[in-house]
Each structure stands twice: as C-alpha cells, then as structure tokens.
Amino acid sequence: MIAEQAAAIAALEAKLERLERLVSRNSANSSFPPSMDAQPGRTRPGKARRPRADGTRAPGKQPGAPGAHLAWSARPGDRVAVFPQGRCRCGAALAGAADLGVTASHQQVEIPLVTARVVQYDRHAVRCGCGRADRRPALGRVRARHARPGRRRRRPGQRPDPVPDHRLARGVLRRDPVRAGPAPPWRKKWLLVACTPLLTHYALADRNTASFAAFVLPDLTGVMVHDRYHVYDHPRLGSHTHQLCCAHLLRDLADAAEAYPGVPWPAQVTAALQALIHAANQARDAGQPAVPAPQAAPLTAAYRDAITAGLAHLEQLGGPKRKYRQGLLEVLRDREHDILRFLTDTRIPATSNQAERDLRPAKTQDKISGRLRSEQTARHRYAIRGYLSTAAKHQADTLTALRDAITGSPWMPPIPATL
C-alpha cells in the first residue's frame, strides 16, 4: 500500500510540475507572445531587471551613440509667407499693416498626395508612300483591356524567388503558426523564414522534417542561427554549423530562476551569457573579427562555472522538478561551441532577432485579419512579402520594386560574395 501511495504521489507531483510550468510561462520566460500574458490564470511577467554593474547594455539609446533627428533644411522646396490675420487691438485691419520682416520660421515635411492618373494612348495608323499601312504596337506597360495579369505575365507571387538558389550565408531561421486554407481554425500552416540582413525568404509549410527538408536548409551555407528546435539537427537536413539563439536561452534561464527562487546559478549563467553578448557587440562595433581572447576567457570561465554549479544543484533534487532544467543545463554545457560561436566571428548574430523582425508583419496581419481562406493566396502573399522585404533591406523603393515586378522586370538584389 505504501509503495502504491508513493507511486501515486510521484505521478501527482509530475502532473503538478507540468501544470505549474504551463501556467507560469509568459513572454518573459518562454517564446509566448506578449498577447498571451493577459490570459486568465497566467502569471504576468515581472519588470525586467537587467544588471548593469558587469557592463551589460541598458535598454534604450546608449551613452555616446549618435542621435537621429529631422534636420533643418537649408534649401526648402517651397516658402510660404505667413502674415497675421484679423484686426489690430485698435480696430484697424492687419491686411494693410507694414511688413516688419520674418521673426520666426518653422519647417514641415509635406508628402505630396498620390492620385491615380488616367492616360489614354491613341495608336494611330499611317500609310507609307508604297501603300503599306502600319500601326504602332501597344506600349509595354499598357494592356489592351482589363484582363487577368496571368494571361500575359505571371503574378508577382510566381516571380523568381528574390533569394537565388536559396543559398544564405549566416542565415537566421524561425517558424510561426499562420492560419491559412479552408481547414478548421485549429489546423495551422507554419510560416518559415530564412533571412540575413540583406535577404528574406518565406515558405508556408507543415511543422515536420519533410517540410524543413524542402525548405532552404539543405542548400544553406555558412552558419545557421535558430531556436534549437529539434528538426534543425535532423540528418535529413544535412550537416550545418549552428548558432543557438541566446535570446531563447535567456528566457529559459528566466524560467529556471522562477522555478528555483533563491538559487544563484540561473542568475549567474544569465549574467555570464549577457556579458559575453555585450563583449561581442563591443568587438563588432570596433571592427574586430572576434572577441579578444583575454576578454573572452574570464567570461567563458564564469559561464562554465555557473553551469557546473547548476548541475550540482539539480543532482541534489529528486522527482520531476529537475528534469526540464537539467536538459537546459546539459544543452548549455554540451553545445557550448554552438552557443558561443558569435565570440569567434562577430559577423554571426547571437540571437535570431532578425527573423523575429521579418516575421512581425505577418503576425500582425494574422492577428488583425485572421486566416486566409486560400492556401495558394497565402503562398503568393508571402512570396511578395519576401520580395518586398529584400528590396527594403537594400534601401530600394518598395512601391517601385512592386510595380517593376508586375510589369515584367522585377528588381533583383545584388548578391555579394559574403552575406
């Protein structure tokens, strides 16, 4: 009877641990979006505490960083004289008062109104002296009648992908659910994104190995930055060099700190990892290819010591309470090279924030407008969005790039030797 009770208690403890962890997850300690923090019964994230004594970056503009503002234009496009209106206190009209000159000025940037302009092209026929009649062919940008573009050209969503050969060096990868197609609302397609600071490529697929194998991963070169989703390490995807997203690791460490209040190792690992990221940012800003060894060595030693202390602490615990966090510490220990790779090459980002930024417009549209009824339309939408995102990263005018794609001469990005 005692053995049965002990087994039942262990099972209840495991169930309670899972439920407590699900309820405690929020945007500060997991990958949940901030919109889920307001769900009933969910623990709200506390105020973020970022230690500054060890040199980590404070939020906002950094001291000494150059500012940005709308500068005064020495050559305005137009000048408008503004005179007082109405009457003086004596009752005389100010319209006839003497001009004393300009006493103050201000500038306002006016965006011209964009309006549709209808242009009619009258194609004349002429007759040569030999008697042959000739007529000017239709202009390239004008259709003879209102017809579907597919009859003459492919739709923009069917244009050649703006990422030639799907080859991305130092690609940042991410996936998020997107509702698309006539299936029930709980069935979701996943929007995959592979991107660099200059390129963006989206794909609508399922969340499985086959979909990932058909994505850009088999042909990807360089370093792959991701959130350590297990499919990225599948043999079908080939052999890659990895950089695990440190932002996701920091959120997992925040979850561990909440699970073990008063225990120092979560804060120690967090402080060490943040200090390493800060050192890499400083080296990158200074134009250094890697963090200098004398600077990286003590920080890496502190990182390893904190992990060792955490594993020793979890060895003293029994039951299911240690299982998840022990897996986190083992990843921090066993995949140190994949976590701290940004120290040896400052071109490698420490986080997948680039992919998060490229996914934000899609997530915003999904929250506002809901699901897309046609999966084919969704694929076209994200093909166009990837094309426009790539154009924007090259400082190209997106409206011009979209017009060029529709008229048959799509803008294509210059592919440098390294991305």
Describe this entry's structure for a reader.
This protein has helices at residues 2-24, 209-214, 246-259, 265-285, 293-315, 323-334, 336-339, 353-369, 375-393, 398-406; strands spanning 125-127, 133-135, 169-178, 189-195, 200-205, 221-226, 241-244. It is of the alpha/beta class. Among the domains are: 161-241 and 352-419, no CATH class; 246-348. Helix 4 (265-285) runs antiparallel to helix 5 and helix 5 (293-315) runs antiparallel to helix 6 (323-334). Mean pLDDT is 79; it is low at 140-170.
- Please provide the ordered H/E string of secondary-structure elements: HEEEEEHEEHHHHHHHH
From the N-terminal CA to the C-terminal CA, the straight-line distance is 66 Å
Structural category: alpha/beta
Number of helices: 10
* Whole-number mean pLDDT: 79
Rounded Rg: 30 Å
Strand order of the largest sheet: 5-4-3-6-7
The amount of helix comes to 25-40%
Strand content: 5-15%
Silhouette: extended
Largest sheet: 5 strands, mixed
Strand elements, count: 7
Low-confidence stretches: 140-170
How does the SSE layout of this entry go?
Elements: H1 2-24, E1 125-127, E2 133-135, E3 169-178, E4 189-195, E5 200-205, H2 209-214, E6 221-226, E7 241-244, H3 246-259, H4 265-285, H5 293-315, H6 323-334, H7 336-339, H8 353-369, H9 375-393, H10 398-406
Parallel strand pairs: 3-6, 6-7
Antiparallel strand pairs: 1-2, 3-4, 4-5
Helix pairs in contact: 3-4, 4-5, 5-6
